[in-house]
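Hi R.,

Here's the chain you asked about this morning:
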Amino acid sequence: MHKMTRCLLGSFILLTQLSTLHAAQIDTVEIYSEAMNKNIPAIVITPEGYAESTDHYPTVYLLHGYSDSYAGWTTKASVVPSLADQYQLIVVMPDGGYNSWYIDSPIDPQSQYETHIANEVVHFVDSAYRTIPEANSRAITGLSMGGHGGLFLGIRHQQTFGAAGSMSGGVDLTYDINGWEIDEKLGPYSKYPARWDSLSVINMIDLIKSAQLKIIIDCGVDDFFFEINRRLHHKLLENDIPHDYIERPGKHNWAYWDNAVQYQFLFFSNFFNSKPSG
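And the predicted structure, written out as tokens:
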């Protein structure tokens, strides 16, 4: 491995660069968060040919799960850098904290990850890399907690993201009101049930503009989140909201996500390539 230096715009520290296993280049950066008053790491993958070209590229934001970090996708899944090359796009893997669920916590000022990712990270990436800074050239997805985050941020920020996905997503925060320390971010469910319900993806159907946000949902039939994903699928059908829905054999594990992410990137690539010209 060798190091390269580049001048990037924005407030960050370039930590590591370049994987020798793929033609794609892997940058580890730190992005300053005004919302949380701290630097937060992220990984940005640029595809083969990026350094030599002057082209601008679409971007996929890929979110990690509960208790993981921004590095989860590159250390536990083998396929992501090759997908950047295959589809000629930039992949951004921001940090979402240990258990943020990608919301702006009303009780924890150090957990403002909706603002951080949808605003601060997107602004940084668009400033530092040659992106196509339009909603129809941005997509967001993730696994588990990040599956909730992908749909949550996609639905709530349709001016920023034109497509959103979820893999094994915890799309209903009330699935287990004692699990994953969600109460640390929202307060106890017994005291704030309306807050929990309003921030659950499964209850946000009315915020989706029909046929505008492109949606893909993927969950294994042996996953503990399977039934809530199927319920979300049926709610979308009942409301005539177009979406792709995939269920196949598989559990809540990396073997499933390493496969599922390939279908998500195909979906996003098709979306990027089908956008109207002009």
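The helical segments are 72-76, 80-87, 113-128, 145-156, 183-186, 193-198, 226-238, 254-274.

Let me know if you need anything else.
M.
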